[in-house]
Amino acid sequence: MCKKCSGGFLLVEGLFALVLLWTTAAVLLPLFMQVVLERNNLVLEEKARRLIAVALYEEPFVGETTVVDGRTTFRLQAHEEGGRMWKVCVRWNDYAGREVVRCGYGKR
Predict the structure, then answer these.
(1) What residues does 93 pair with on adjacent strands?
(2) Given phi > 0 = left and psi -120 to 50 = alpha, else beta, which region is 97?
(3) What is the DSSP letter of 55?
(4) What is the pLDDT of residue 6?
(5) What is the DSSP secondary structure assignment for residue 58, as one 8-state letter?
(6) Which one of 18, 38, 47, 60 is at 20 to 30 Å from 29 when CA atoms are compared?
(7) What confidence tens digit (pLDDT) does each residue in 37-78 have?
(8) Residues 6+ apart with CB under 8 A from 56
(9) Distance CA 7, CA 53 (A)
(10) Is residue 76 within 8 Å of residue 65, measured between CB atoms?
(11) pLDDT value of position 1
(12) If we measure between CA atoms, which residue out of 60, 87, 62, 65 comes closest to residue 76?
């Protein structure tokens, strides 16, 4: 046996640990970024739902309007479906670049 062995790590063991750490980070970082992106898209969808509720029940409007919130532009369209039924649709581009449309119906 080695009489002067101090029980420390070898260079190869340290490099192996670093490679393992970097590999784990390289696999998990894109997944984490996707989760953050979808979370931000859910926040945009909640803002759109609030805009629909305001347009239907609090401040009724007819035609088209644009609402800018930070980097996102929401385009609202409202029209009468028949009788007192109204349809309000909101369009916006999410953080992934997809165009999203949500619609709501209500009576006035």
Answers:
(1) 99
(2) left
(3) I
(4) 66
(5) I
(6) 47
(7) 999 999 999 999 999 999 888 877 778 999 999 899 999 999
(8) 86, 88, 104, 105, 106, 108
(9) 68
(10) yes
(11) 54
(12) 65
Q: Check residue 54 and report its DSSP letter.
A: I
| pLDDT tens per residue across span 11-33 | 888 899 999 999 999 999 999 99
pTM for the full predicted model: 0.73
C-alpha distances (whole Å) from 100 to each of 37, 43, 54 are: 15, 13, 19
Alpha-carbon gap, residue 78 to 57, rounded angstroms: 12
Q: What is the C-alpha to C-alpha distance for residues 48 and 103, in angstroms, rounded to an integer?
A: 9
Nearest CA to 41 out of 102, 86, 83 is that of 102
* Amino acid, res. 24: T
Residue 92: exposure state from Cβ atoms within 10 A (0-12, 13-18, ≥19): buried
Query: How far apart are the C-alpha atoms of 61 and 83, rounded to whole Å?
Result: 16
Higher pLDDT, 83 or 93: 93
Domain ranges of the chain: 11-107
Would you give the DSSP letter of residue 44? H
